């Protein structure tokens, strides 16, 4: 988490929550611009990498602002933050929002979701991310062994599998999800193919492929790459 | 009371109106009753009139005024021969022959000698004896040609006579008897047809209006309420349409009221949710900050207990409000084919980090095969979340969470198991109720069943389809 100078736009009308969240995000080295209403959102969103948006706002509500922001800049990730009941708002919000967090939320959960969104949008700086004994230069599509400085040469599918897991750092992905994301076709009998590719991937990146550390197997569920 | 009378007024009025269906029907039935006693004599009368008029038509229409006309004419001509010489009689007969060209005629003088046959006739004797005369008469009666014999002189009293033999076809147009029968049949038939046609028209009219009303009832606007119909007549169907319109108006009213109430309830729940969650969020934020501060172990423990309680409270609020919305019909389910095995695995994957943090042993035994349930994706997700949440909140002490696909009552069944002290123990009494109520409500709406088997060793929750799944894809 050595990132800095990533600008976030945060729109929240409640002063107490606003102060707390702003403080927590700043402690994670984000630059936070906090607005109490959405009127200036479009202009203020310039140069921001992500928008955290409350639903209940005076004047224009969060849905309207979110839709406008998305229309003006479809690549800008939007994270909805709402105190309304999830079952009611979640679907409406997710029509344009990239993620949705309901209040009350754990501050760690919020920053984790922001991390995921930023990484998915490719808005990471060229700083490498350390994954166990590996350094991942996402912008340059490079994976380097941290101890030896040696660059790892991965096959096309192996690299795709690794990057898909890496972009969902900390999340468990099922075999179906991985296969469909990498091969682009429905997972029916792709099981063997995927297992073979993961075995080859581990042979190249793990210190000990027999007890893998980077690509973890979560029994019965899928695989995970953790920082 | 007054209102009631108002709405009933058109019904009563219509019974008295001549245009009422009852009145119209009575007229038709009455016509049917009158049919036999009135129509049959009428038909007979028609028959008689036709018969009579056709007879007189024939008489006057025939060339020489029929048999009776010819008879009297011939006698008159014979009377005119009074005092005429034989030559003059011959002359007159030639004249008469010109007048009746189809007829053959002759005359016999006082001495019984046949004179001037026009044209000459073979069966006429030249000299008449009484026997000849009687034979001739006998041969002529009722035969064709029609024969008239008239004595000459005043009052036809002379001893000489003249005879005309006219072919019957020249004096009659055929047999007039029974000429009225087709008219009789036609009349009866027409009257029957008129009655049948009237009945048919009457019922067709009723039927058409009923069908129109029926289609108006079937047609619905975007709220599922039919449009009011235009009332054209104030009879019984008109009254029906009037009542129908009244019902439509009532439906619209209640629909309007319902949507207003729904809106009110929705905004109330949303506001309540907001007002309850905002302070909780702030509390959590501060608790999080407090944890970063240097605290004694006891202080740290207090903070973590408070954090746990705040989280539980947040979940409880969410479940409570969701339950309120769902049971008031605010949450619309869209059923589609969902691969429940895949959904369960992905849901478990997203819960895994929390289970890991809580130190639970995770045991997932799901096959890599599809199992399709007809369900609402978000609703199923919610059910899984609530069941997983229950384990974390109430069976954490068991240190175990299991998720498997097994067979129950011959159906594929998702099994959620834990090794907590069981639902009946004291710790699980709080909060679990609402979460499970939501699971049950959603399960019921999607044709699923939840069963729970709880003991000291742990709890097993079974979730399966009520009816046997059609598409099992060879599972087991």
From TrEMBL, chain A:
Pfam families to which the protein is assigned, alphabetical: Response_reg, Trans_reg_C
Modified residues (4-aspartylphosphate): 54
Entry keywords, A to Z: DNA-binding, Phosphoprotein, Transcription, Transcription regulation, Two-component regulatory system
Family annotation (PROSITE patterns): OMPR_PHOB, RESPONSE_REGULATORY
CDD domains found in the cross-reference section: REC_OmpR, trans_reg_C
One GO location term (cellular component): protein-DNA complex
Molecular function terms, GO-annotated: phosphorelay response regulator activity; transcription cis-regulatory region binding
One example of a Gene Ontology biological process annotation: regulation of DNA-templated transcription
DNA-binding region: 126-227
Residues of the Response regulatory domain: 7-118
Designated name of the protein: DNA-binding response regulator
Organism, as annotated: Paenibacillus agaridevorans
From TrEMBL, chain B:
Manganese in keyword set: no
A single GO cellular-component term on record: plasma membrane
Enzyme Commission (EC) number: 2.7.13.3
Membrane topology, from the record: Multi-pass membrane protein
GO molecular function (one): ATP binding
Family annotation (Pfam families): HATPase_c, HisKA
Transmembrane segments: 25-50, 183-203
Domain (HAMP): residue spans on this chain: 204-256
InterPro entries membership: HAMP_dom, HATPase_C_sf, HATPase_dom, His_kinase_dom, HisK_dim/P_dom, HisK_dim/P_sf, HssS/ArlS-like
Signal peptide: none
Location(s), subcellular: Cell membrane
Annotated CDD domains: HisKA (cd00082)
Keyword Transmembrane helix: yes
Keyword field: ATP-binding, Cell membrane, Kinase, Membrane, Nucleotide-binding, Phosphoprotein, Transferase, Transmembrane, Transmembrane helix, Two-component regulatory system
Domain annotation Histidine kinase: ranges: 271-469
Protein name: histidine kinase
Organism: Paenibacillus agaridevorans
Taxonomic lineage: Bacteria, Bacillati, Bacillota, Bacilli, Bacillales
